[in-house]
Amino acid sequence: MSFLLVAVSLLFATTAFAQDWTQWRGPARDGMIAAAVVPKVWPNTVKRGWSVEIGEGFSSPVVSNGRVLVHSRRDPEEIVTAIDLATGKVAWQQKYVSEFKKNQYATQMAKGPNSTPIVVGSRLITLGVTGILTAWNITDGSVAWRNDYSASIDTSKLFCGTSMSPMLEGGSLIVHVGSDVHGGRVLALDPATGQERWSSKGLGPGYASPLAVTVDSVRQIITMTNGSIIGIDAANGSPLWSIPFPDDWHENIVTPIWTGGALIVSGTRQGTHAYALARTGGAWQPKQIWKNADVTMYTASPVFANGVIYGLSNKRRGHFVALDAETGAVKWATQGRDGNHASILQTNEHLLMLTDAAVLTVARRTPDGFKEEKRYELGTGATWTLPIMLRDGLVVRDANSVVRLHWN
Question: What is the mean pLDDT of residues 159-168?
Answer without folding.
Answer: 85
